[in-house]
Amino acid sequence: MHVEHDSLPIDALPQALQALVRRHAPDDTPAATGLARRSFLKLGVAGGLTLGAFPLAVSAQQAAQPAGLKPTQLPSAFLRIETDGRVIVTINRLDFGQGVHTALPMILAEELDADWSRVSAVHGSNDPAYVDPIFGIHITGGSGSMNRSYAQYRELGARARAMLLAAAAQRWKVDAATLRTERGQVIGPAGQRAGYGELAEAAAALPVPQQVTLKDPKTFRLIGQPTTRLDARDKASGQQDYGIDVRLPGMLTAVVAHPPVFGGRLKALDDKAAKAIAGVKAVLRVPTDRGGEGVVVIADGYWPARQGRDALKLDWDLSGVEKVDSARQLVQYRELASQPGPRKYDADVSALASAPHQIRAEFQFPYLAHAPMEPLNCTVAISPAGDAVELWLGSQMPGLDGMAAAKVLGVAPDKVRVHVQMAGGGFGRRAVPSSDYIVEACGVAKAARAAGLNVPVRMVWSREDDIRGGYYRPMHLHTARIGFDEKGRITAWDHVIVGQSILAGSPFESFMVKGGIDETAVEGMKEPYAIPMRLTVHHPKVNVPVLWWRSVGSTHTAFVMETLVDEIARTTKQDPVAYRLALMGDGHPRHKAALQLAVEKSGYGQRQLPAGRAWGVAVHESFQSVVAYVVEASIEQGQPVLHRVTAGVHCNLVVNPRSLEAQVQGGALMGLGMCLPGAAITLKDGVVEQGNFGDYVVPRMPQMPEFAVHVVPSAEPPTGMGEPGLPPLAPAWANALARLSGQPIRSLPFQQA
Q: Of 650, 644, 574, nearest to 616 (Cα)?
């Protein structure tokens, strides 16, 4: 998801948090009428370090919180030092491939002066200590992990180091100022040495310092160094456990038959054949997302549950629900585009009529599924008394998901514990404001308990369930009319965007939908170029669940902006790089630095390309980071081929260059995937037509081009990099193909030759 500092004022957060609590708390709790923040934080941790054999967190009832410090500032929830010197860091984000499982411990270990070879990491939970320290909610999104927790984890490490120094000073009866630390040891003025593990218990008993002095970045030993991920070996060897791998004593597995149209309900059920399958324990009706109804088969493993579902005979009632058809939807969007609507920008575009050059363009972008390698899953364990719940899943929003579970199961929010698991991808699908699949899993567990199955239940979606399950990147239509002169000076740009709002009806609507315009739909429009633009936006309501998808609005706005700017450069016979730099004017130094770095490293303009190849260029900012691509492409046997990509990146300080390179490459690969024929979700009579990788195309290894990533040096605090590598890839490739064919590309995916 995309939440920028300037679009989410801090003073709006308490109200938003209250809205979250009111929406998801059980009706019989105080939260239903407005839960106070102190109640929301009832799970809070307090005091000291968690060292040696001490518990992970001390409840607010057991110890007083140090004055002036928030739960997010206390080392106790984030750091565990074993007596043998091992350091275990808890991360406050979900790692689903982006590398925070390593980068966040690197930041803390840097200030702690830990021995990196003894450092490991674990995921956190829905404990209030693990909220985003800036936004105050549990969230992994908006490429904000490094951006918003960089200072936090530095301070956590520095506080812990100060406590260890104080413990050593007491032991040796010396001034703490005479001590220093090095690779997990405190060293005294007379050469004394004590490992962190030896000092752990004594340090845990000391006060947590409110103010700490951070290292000079010039002295960094870990931050900025290419570092192998802590989870690399387990993932490469297949030993890494994910949410789908959770196994609990007595656990059963559930598979749900969903209605074929979103919101459909069951008319009739014949479950005799399903119940006859060995291992099937129950077949039950359960609620599904958007007011729908489904049937769950609960069994002693996934395969019998899946077989049971396949054996069901179902008759669906689809009356009263909209049956979306992609072809009809495009016609409707075109009609909307010609009508007045809310405006993001409202420049005078009267100069269009007299412009010597004009472009009239229509762009089409389909629905896109997230399609992570690990399909959605959630394991639910209800306590014997029914008054407490534990969840195991890879969640980007464990606090919100925990409150949703509380609502469904009728328990107090502070009686829900979310154990965040490593996730095999997600790209936004594990951060759903409606908590759709968590609500479904809890409904399944509730139905199972009512049927006498008082055991943990793991709900698993198949790949087909996942791809057909909704919450897609919205379908969008763009129309543009642009007027410009012989020198490429743009005199008027009249633009319309039509697409569903991903925030309408969500807790984020109140502060991220302004004047009827979803801010995520228009991000990336206009900037960094000095353009007189009139931008009109329409958000139709459609019976297709939509959500943020990696890089959110920039998935379509970057393509439109960068291909149109390139087309103006071609029309006026200007170099596309020089034209962009001129169009930026005197500002945007980070855009210029990233673009010029990519140009320099690629050899653009300095070397001759092989016959049949062309250069393509694009630059785009998202999540406060800028990525520029210079690509080499060709058309072979009628098919577009991407040969080489050179990236110029400006994201300020890089914590782990190895992870940054992987993130840029991974984002670019998803951007490449948007271009491939078959990379689209379409609907016919309300039914999603795709179901697996055989008919929903994703990029494969042979399609990955040669790739080089170069970073603009900076010592400023890091900005986001989980998503910015995606948006400029498709337009850079399309621009190269347009130079080869002479025809601009107006839609994604690219059309079959």
A: 644
